[in-house]
Amino acid sequence: MSRGGRSPGKGYGGPWYGRFPERHRFEAEAVRLFPGLRSSIVAKLGYVIRLRVDVPEYESRNVKILFPKDFPQSPHVFADGPTSKHRNWDDSLCMWHPKDDEEHRWVFGDGLHKLIGHTILHLIREAWWREHQDEDDWPGPEAPHGPLTPKDSPDERPDAT
């Protein structure tokens, strides 16, 4: 079991986000910290969260977080603005390697507010990296890998629940 307690996958009535009390608990702290946060359930996609975040020392960014219908515990995080070498095949942010141990990546039990915190930190690193591309030095932890593809989904890991 993950450090966050019970598994956030599909339950009795579909994905966790389809049950208002679970979705409300998941969003509560993030809504308090980011009052502009908006979420919706999109039938063919999954659970979509949109917000604008301040990126200290850089431009604010529009962020979209998607919990796909087929893999509701594995978010894909997107942000507008210029890209970096730490984006996946679908242009989502590559904030950690999906096969990293739980202490090196976000897990569901951390909550939405911590996922947004990881996102802001990643956007700071992207902006810094764009300013210092000639050094080709990423300002944070970095696992050697190429662009992540659908086969790299954490849901494909043998130990995923």
Structure description:
Helix 1 crosses helix 2. The protein has one domain: Roll (Ubiquitin Conjugating Enzyme). It has 161 residues and is of the alpha+beta class. A 4-stranded antiparallel beta sheet has the order 1-2-3-4. The longest helix has 20 residues. The chain has 2 helices and 4 strands; from the N terminus they run αββββα.
Order of helices and strands: HEEEEH
CATH 2nd-level architecture: Roll
- Taken together, the total number of domains comes to 1
Q: Helicity, in percent? A: 10-25%
Q: What's the total count of β strands?
A: 4
Report how far apart the termini are: 8 Å
Largest sheet: 4 strands, antiparallel
Task: Name the strands of the widest sheet in spatial order.
Answer: 1-2-3-4
Task: Give the strand content.
Answer: 15-25%
- Structural class of the helices, strands and pairings? alpha+beta
Low-pLDDT windows of residues: 1-7, 154-161
- CATH topology, by name, is Ubiquitin Conjugating Enzyme
| CA gyration radius, whole angstroms | 16 Å
Average pLDDT confidence is: 82
Q: Label the overall shape.
A: globular
What count of helical segments does DSSP give? 2
Give the CATH level 1 class. Answer: Alpha Beta
